[in-house]
Amino acid sequence: MEKLLSVDKTKATEKETKKIKSKKLAKLVGEDAEITIRELSGKRYNTLQAMLYDKKGNRDMNATYDFNLMCCVYGVVDPCLTDQKLMEHFGASTPKDLAAILFGMETGSIASEIVKLSGLGDDAEEEVKNL
User: Fold this and answer.
1) Preceding omega of 79 cis (within 30 degrees of 0)
2) Which DSSP symbol is given to 53?
3) DSSP letters of 42-97?
4) Alpha carbon distance 100, 66 (integer Å)
Protein backbone atom coordinates (compact mmCIF):
# COMPACT_ATOMS: atom_id res chain seq x y z
CA MET A 1 0.00 0.00 0.00
CA GLU A 2 2.81 2.44 0.88
CA LYS A 3 4.53 1.79 -2.45
CA LEU A 4 1.33 2.56 -4.32
CA LEU A 5 0.82 5.77 -2.39
CA SER A 6 4.34 6.91 -3.30
CA VAL A 7 3.86 6.33 -7.04
CA ASP A 8 3.32 9.29 -9.37
CA LYS A 9 -0.38 8.79 -10.11
CA THR A 10 -0.07 10.19 -13.65
CA LYS A 11 1.93 7.08 -14.56
CA ALA A 12 -1.17 4.96 -14.01
CA THR A 13 -2.92 6.57 -16.97
CA GLU A 14 0.05 6.99 -19.32
CA LYS A 15 -0.20 4.89 -22.44
CA GLU A 16 2.89 3.05 -23.55
CA THR A 17 4.19 3.70 -27.07
CA LYS A 18 6.59 1.85 -29.33
CA LYS A 19 8.17 2.39 -32.74
CA ILE A 20 7.88 -0.40 -35.31
CA LYS A 21 8.91 -0.69 -38.96
CA SER A 22 6.32 -0.61 -41.73
CA LYS A 23 7.23 -2.31 -45.00
CA LYS A 24 4.24 -0.90 -46.87
CA LEU A 25 4.95 2.64 -45.72
CA ALA A 26 8.62 2.16 -46.63
CA LYS A 27 7.57 1.24 -50.18
CA LEU A 28 5.41 4.36 -50.37
CA VAL A 29 8.11 6.77 -49.19
CA GLY A 30 11.06 4.99 -50.79
CA GLU A 31 13.07 4.49 -47.62
CA ASP A 32 12.88 2.74 -44.25
CA ALA A 33 9.82 3.89 -42.36
CA GLU A 34 8.78 3.58 -38.75
CA ILE A 35 5.40 4.17 -37.22
CA THR A 36 4.61 4.87 -33.58
CA ILE A 37 1.95 2.72 -31.96
CA ARG A 38 0.20 3.19 -28.63
CA GLU A 39 -1.52 0.72 -26.36
CA LEU A 40 -5.31 0.54 -26.40
CA SER A 41 -7.44 0.87 -23.29
CA GLY A 42 -9.33 -2.21 -22.17
CA LYS A 43 -12.62 -0.55 -23.01
CA ARG A 44 -11.49 0.34 -26.54
CA TYR A 45 -10.16 -3.18 -27.11
CA ASN A 46 -13.43 -4.74 -25.94
CA THR A 47 -15.39 -2.45 -28.28
CA LEU A 48 -13.19 -3.49 -31.19
CA GLN A 49 -13.46 -7.16 -30.23
CA ALA A 50 -17.25 -6.88 -30.42
CA MET A 51 -16.88 -6.14 -34.14
CA LEU A 52 -15.74 -9.73 -34.62
CA TYR A 53 -19.10 -11.25 -33.68
CA ASP A 54 -22.53 -11.12 -35.27
CA LYS A 55 -25.74 -10.46 -33.35
CA LYS A 56 -26.06 -14.17 -32.53
CA GLY A 57 -22.59 -14.28 -30.98
CA ASN A 58 -21.00 -16.17 -33.86
CA ARG A 59 -17.53 -15.23 -35.07
CA ASP A 60 -17.75 -13.14 -38.26
CA MET A 61 -14.58 -13.98 -40.19
CA ASN A 62 -15.30 -11.17 -42.66
CA ALA A 63 -14.88 -8.60 -39.87
CA THR A 64 -11.22 -9.44 -39.18
CA TYR A 65 -9.79 -6.95 -41.65
CA ASP A 66 -12.04 -4.20 -40.26
CA PHE A 67 -10.93 -5.11 -36.73
CA ASN A 68 -7.28 -4.78 -37.78
CA LEU A 69 -7.96 -1.45 -39.50
CA MET A 70 -9.68 -0.04 -36.43
CA CYS A 71 -6.84 -1.23 -34.18
CA CYS A 72 -4.58 0.84 -36.43
CA VAL A 73 -6.89 3.85 -36.34
CA TYR A 74 -6.85 3.89 -32.53
CA GLY A 75 -3.37 2.51 -31.97
CA VAL A 76 -1.17 4.24 -34.56
CA VAL A 77 -0.18 7.71 -33.38
CA ASP A 78 2.45 8.56 -35.99
CA PRO A 79 1.46 9.03 -38.71
CA CYS A 80 -1.79 10.43 -37.35
CA LEU A 81 -4.51 8.62 -39.27
CA THR A 82 -7.10 11.25 -38.34
CA ASP A 83 -5.11 14.08 -39.93
CA GLN A 84 -7.37 15.81 -42.46
CA LYS A 85 -4.50 16.86 -44.77
CA LEU A 86 -3.17 13.31 -44.90
CA MET A 87 -6.65 11.89 -45.59
CA GLU A 88 -7.25 14.44 -48.35
CA HIS A 89 -3.84 13.81 -49.91
CA PHE A 90 -4.50 10.08 -50.20
CA GLY A 91 -8.18 10.45 -51.10
CA ALA A 92 -9.36 8.74 -47.92
CA SER A 93 -12.77 9.70 -46.59
CA THR A 94 -12.16 8.20 -43.12
CA PRO A 95 -9.18 7.32 -40.92
CA LYS A 96 -10.07 3.66 -41.52
CA ASP A 97 -9.74 4.20 -45.28
CA LEU A 98 -6.37 5.88 -44.73
CA ALA A 99 -5.15 2.92 -42.65
CA ALA A 100 -6.11 0.60 -45.52
CA ILE A 101 -4.29 2.78 -48.05
CA LEU A 102 -1.11 3.22 -46.03
CA PHE A 103 -0.80 -0.27 -44.53
CA GLY A 104 -2.91 -2.69 -46.60
CA MET A 105 -2.61 -6.26 -45.39
CA GLU A 106 0.16 -5.19 -43.01
CA THR A 107 -2.64 -4.01 -40.70
CA GLY A 108 -2.77 -7.54 -39.28
CA SER A 109 0.80 -7.47 -38.01
CA ILE A 110 0.44 -3.85 -36.82
CA ALA A 111 -2.76 -4.73 -34.93
CA SER A 112 -0.94 -7.67 -33.38
CA GLU A 113 1.82 -5.38 -32.12
CA ILE A 114 -0.76 -2.94 -30.72
CA VAL A 115 -2.57 -5.75 -28.89
CA LYS A 116 0.73 -7.01 -27.48
CA LEU A 117 1.71 -3.50 -26.37
CA SER A 118 -1.69 -3.17 -24.70
CA GLY A 119 -0.64 -5.84 -22.24
CA LEU A 120 -2.79 -8.62 -23.52
CA GLY A 121 0.21 -10.94 -23.85
CA ASP A 122 1.35 -13.51 -26.34
CA ASP A 123 -1.94 -15.44 -26.22
CA ALA A 124 -3.85 -12.37 -27.41
CA GLU A 125 -1.22 -11.76 -30.09
CA GLU A 126 -1.71 -15.31 -31.37
CA GLU A 127 -5.49 -14.82 -31.30
CA VAL A 128 -5.21 -11.72 -33.52
CA LYS A 129 -2.85 -13.51 -35.92
CA ASN A 130 -5.26 -16.45 -36.17
CA LEU A 131 -8.37 -14.36 -36.86
Assistant:
1) yes
2) B
3) HHHHHHHHHTTB-TTS-B-GGGHHHHHHHHHHHHEEETTTT-HHHHHHHT-SSHHH
4) 9
The amino acid present at 65, given as its one-letter code, is: Y
pTM: predicted TM-score of the whole model, two decimal places: 0.82
Q: pLDDT of the chain along its 131 residues, tens only?
A: 787 777 777 776 778 899 999 999 999 999 999 999 999 998 999 999 999 998 888 998 889 999 999 999 999 999 999 999 999 999 999 999 999 999 999 999 999 999 999 987 555 545 555 55
What is the four-CA torsion angle of 56, 122, 117, 85, rounded to 10 degrees? -60
- Are 58 and 101 within 8 A, CB to CB? no
